[in-house]
Design a protein that fits this description.
mainly alpha; elongated; 10 helices
């Protein structure tokens, strides 16, 4: 029994952290995560969770630091790389976000999600010709029923307008208005 006590405590703290996050009690979630990290400083998921909570708190630089710790422990952790890209996107550093999202795409992260995020960043950076195939792939996977569908269609419409394909732009715009 005694051997399971530390493991049970970590599980309880993890559950408490999720409850705090879901209830919007983010400072308490950070406190629990810091306790967990004191006990298990090389646990990548704790660093990922801490970074995600920091993003919710709009403490984006702290989130990036947490994701960097996760990557220092596991350089192949694509979830940390993707989440770090999200932090940079929230900081409106589209160039850095795109660089990280492209790395995720190259390394085999969820292709539809990586294509979607690359396409959105490419549109923001006015790289319309590059955005079209990424957004098209994402749309082909997600269709018109995803939380991403409106954004995909809207960004595709914009990219098609800027590349001179008004017919496809109109189709995408119409599709976006139907979602």
């Amino acid at each position: 029994r005694e051997q399971w006590k530390p493991h049970a405590m970590m599980i309880a703290r993890g559950l408490a952290t999720e409850c705090f996050r879901n209830a919007g009690r983010l400072e308490e979630a950070v406190k629990e995560l810091n306790h967990m990290l004191d006990e298990a400083p090389f646990e990548v998921n704790n660093w990922l969770n801490l970074g995600n909570v920091y993003n919710q708190m709009e403490r984006f630089n702290d989130a990036i630091d947490a994701f960097d710790y996760a990557l220092a422990i596991d350089p192949e952790c694509l979830d940390a790389l993707f989440a770090k890209g999200h932090s940079y996107a929230l900081l409106e550093n589209e160039e850095k976000a795109l660089q990280l999202y492209r790395t995720c795409l190259e390394r085999g992260y969820d292709k539809a999600l990586a294509c979607y995020t690359c396409g959105v960043m490419e549109t923001a950076l006015e790289l319309y010709a590059e955005a079209i195939p990424h957004l098209t792939y994402a749309h082909n996977v997600y269709g018109d029923q995803s939380i991403y569908s409106f954004s995909i269609c809207f960004n595709l419409a914009l990219a098609y307008i800027e590349t001179g394909d008004m017919k496809r732009a109109a189709e995408c715009y119409f599709r976006a208005t139907q979602i």
